[in-house]
Amino acid sequence: MIIAVDAAGGDYAPHEIVKGAIKAAQEYKVDIALVGRKPVLHVLASRHLNKAGITIIDASQTIELHESPVKAVHSKPDSSIVVGINLVRDGVVSAFVSAGNSGAVVCASLFNLGRIEGIKRPALCGILNINPSAPVFLIDAGANVDCRPDYLVQFAELGTIYTRQLLDISSPRVGLLSNGEEEAKGNRLIRESHKLLKKGNVNFIGNVEGQDISKRTADVIVTDGFTGNIVIKTMEGLSDTFLNSLRQVGQRISGALHGHGLLHMVGLSSWAKRIDYREYGGACLLGVNGNIIIAHGRSQARAIKNAIGLAKQTVERDVCQIIKEESRKQATAIDDSNFDQ
Known about the structure:
Blueprint (H helix, E strand, L loop, with lengths): L1 E5 L8 H14 L2 E6 L1 H8 L8 E5 L10 H7 L4 H10 L5 E4 L3 H11 L10 E6 L7 E4 L9 H19 L5 E5 L10 H12 L3 E6 L11 E3 L2 H32 L5 H4 L3 H6 L7 E5 L4 E5 L5 H16 L2 H22 L1
Helix pairs in contact: 1-11, 3-5, 4-5, 6-7
């Protein structure tokens, strides 16, 4: 298995990206193709080339975070994002991980990989790792700002497949994010989506509210990309604020206690990891013809390592192929139904 990593994307590229990739190669026993400016990457990774399964793919251009995704993808064909996604398209690598311009990753994936037949819109499936043994998946986490009810139904189907494959849950519970549990609650999109999901092929349990996310009421939470992205970033912000405050208090107390860490003393170290986005790495772009993982723009080495681990799981569980097979089955079922009529 070879996983391509965008070494030019993200706030801490290329140094932290390279460090995370090397750690992933050592820990997960996968080969890594670093995509970026070869002279720079050769200096950073020279000690690990070949020995740790690290190779370098040259890409002379970089798509910056502030650039227009569509324009940048077309005007920068030798960017690390476009080159990395083309490696997936050509079968050279099994997956691509990027902490760069997420809009550009989505656009390049659509243009160069294409959607799986029958998929109307690809969606980002993010992990809310509140309970490590049973995380919650949120879809869409930001790929589609404007949605229709039938998109949300398909997001539920994609999230169900992904959760089933990664967590071995035979029938994941699907909840629709709303401002109330009652069927009549929510805006027009939510109310119409609710009606369709009740008739669908997923294990739909009804509406869930914001406070239900941490309670793991559902295994998959469905929403539009605008709302989903706000949920993800709100949780990340709260996580950062809480952990920073806890560490500051811990440093003061541990100094008085001769170095004994507060987090370990009160048993919070494992819990702190649960709410840290760096522990789960990124979100998978479901519905395109390839395995694409989008990591947080602020990802440092640990987050990149874990994003590569998520990519490895996605490849091993054959998620992309299973989505293709399920989409084909649904299309056949619809054709048969129309024929019977």
